[in-house]
């Protein structure tokens, strides 16, 4: 058997420090690979370090959430054990996409369902007249819905967070406050759809259920934060929030679903 002597390569003796990884992809190939990852839903872990709160890059991580997570965070607000919502469902971090989607969907649900309920009750009040059967939209209700929903779902949690910061309570962030309030209004979306039913007592029951479910969710997640304050009177803020929540529920019922089936009183109007 013959043996052949092989000279050792000096580069192999340099050890791991002498090894370098190099990319053989061209610049165009790298750009194509990054764009492919972006199309699959993968984005950067966070905004650049030098981005300020006035730039879009600063808010990009708060919208980095998939549809499955948003839907789970929505329907879990209907569960009785939602008092652990912050720790159980808003981890690893809260998002802003879900609350914005929930509030915007609620606005259009109130507007469309209110218009449909108005047309149905008008038709049932006078079945012989075909003119009320036309679906008419009152765009004034749309403006009202935008003002109410965004003011309550966005402005209230921000103002509450500012007040708690002023009082020295810093147990949650402004993003978590907006997320809790935004997701907490999810129950009003199916209730708006069901309020198309023209029976008044059914509408009041539905609004009452939505008031209790969403109110319980908000109280269960806000009161523990208020309880961490050194000053005990801070906990009384929950009473103010409950009154405000009752007011928004009444506004939804009176402004959007106060249509009743009535019979014509007196002779018909002789004028067309």
Describe this structure in words.
The model is unreliable at 11-16 and 23-48 (pLDDT under 50). It is elongated, with a radius of gyration of 29 Å. The chain is built from ten helices and no strands. 56% of the residues lie in helices and 0% in strands. The chain is an all-alpha fold and 272 residues long.
Fill in the keyword field for this structure:
elongated; 272 residues
Concise summary:
The chain has 272 residues and is mostly helical. The chain is 56% helix and 0% strand. The protein starts with 26 loop residues before the first helix and ends in a 16-residue tail after the last helix.
* Beta content: under 5%
What is the overall shape?
elongated
Order of helices and strands: HHHHHHHHHH
Q: Classify the helix fraction into a percent range.
A: 55-70%
Specify the number of helices. Answer: 10
What is the terminal-to-terminal distance? 117 Å
Query: What do the pLDDT scores average to?
Result: 74
Instruction: Return the structural class.
Output: mainly alpha
Note the quaternary state here: single chain
> Could you tell me the number of beta strands?
0
Which regions have little confidence, pLDDT < 50, spanning 5+ residues? Answer: 11-16, 23-48
Main sheet characteristics: none
Any idea what the radius of gyration is?
Answer: 29 Å
